[in-house]
Fold this sequence. Notes:
With 490 residues, this protein is mainly beta. The protein has two domains: 13-374, Neuraminidase, CATH 2.120.10; 382-484, Immunoglobulin-like. The chain contains three helices and 34 strands. The strands form seven sheets. The protein has an eight-stranded antiparallel β-sheet with strand order 20-21-22-23-34-33-29-30, with no helix packed on it. A hairpin with a 4-residue loop joins strand 21 (302-306) and strand 22. It is globular.
Amino acid sequence: MCKWLLAGWLAGALGAQELGGTWGTGRAEAEYYRIVDLPLPAELALEVGSFCALPDGRLAIGTRRGEILLVSGAGDPLPNLRVQRFASGLDEVLGLGHRDGALYATQQTELTRVLDRDGDGRADRFENLSDVWGFGHYHEFAWGSPVAANGSVYVVLGLSESYHYRAPFRGWAFEVTADGRSIPIASGIRSAGGVAPNEHGEMFYVESQGPWNGSCSLKHLKPGGFMGHPISFPAYDLPLAATMGKQPLQPQNQSRLVTECARIEQLVPYAVVFPYRRMGQSITTFRVDRTNGTFGPFTNQLFLGDYSLSVVMRATTEQIDGVWQGACYPFREGFGNGILAVEFTSQGQLVTGGTNRGWPVRGNRQYALERLEWTGRTPFEIERIRIQRDGFAIDFTLPVDRVQAAVLTNYRLATFTHIYQEFYGSPEVDQTTPRVVAAEPTADGRSVRLVVEGMVLGHVHEFDLAGLRSTADKPLLHSNAYYTVNRIPK
Length: 490
């Protein structure tokens, strides 16, 4: 058994390095959410690929170097980490789950159930639950979900070298059941960054900007769905794919996603688009805040990491006429390296980890394990945006000044979309400027209903609310948010 012990640090030494710069709000954010280093010895060379919170309060860490580590003390007021190597010899563990005493590790070539049968703290049994997909290059990543209530794990498979189909089922997603059945769920994935349930329990995954993806996005992993990249179509000829039905139509290059969704039955629109660089550049794993207020005023919202910009963002989703959509919001910048994984501790903190190996990142530390914790002070923020039949409802974390909230010029809206094309990414195109014709704050100031003329299907609706103030005369900590409109309620 290999263990490292580290003594707790003095309280004044807990603050992590503040990098800032993404939104320019890092110093202000620190008043409400502090970043705390979770110190580990340099010889560990930790490269986090996945997390799983265990029932006993420990944190399991899957690494890019193929290890599973069990960590105690990550949530202690003064971090005093005790790290045990549970397993090694795996390959890029980019998904971890736990059920009935076993860990479920999604690695490059298979989903593995890992057990400790003799109770000595070391894995001694590795059961291959699924390896139905092909693999031939290091840049063919497999991301796995936590274990679902029915015992299944969802696996999303990136393309070969991000762009090609050179092995079976690259660009597909599977549900792998507890008894090892592999059920195809969706095709058309390009380069995923994580897969997990949204706040309503539906399985979603993160997609990266690239061919057929104008920007990073959060997508509903809809059974039978086509996620947008047609290079994965050859797998429809494989026997295992028979349950998926017929191959979708080929999308028209340089069209618009909303146009192609009307033409291609299986095509699933982005649920939440993250405007490139303004809201992430390489979005990764997400988790839902189930802390019931221990983490602050954002219970049941999604928290997502970003690899390139070393930030954490928020998102909310809702289903309108059977289609998922929602909004994203800035949250916290200044982490030490590229974030690949996030997880909530049993104490209600958000642990982040990743690596800066392989691609450029803003965080300048080679290895970092950090946690984000609420200071107990509530920021004045856009809590969430919800669509209405004639506009939007905006909820706030604190009461807004009702006089200012009724002034129409305090709401600046703009929309755009992307070109749906085979080339890498897309500029923002087809810009419009909707008009706010009424603003009706509630009596308690916690919400404002906007009547908007000019909402556009298939467009990201950007909100700039910099003119608003709270009843305590505080500006919004982050005044921008971005709502993706796929449907308008009838």
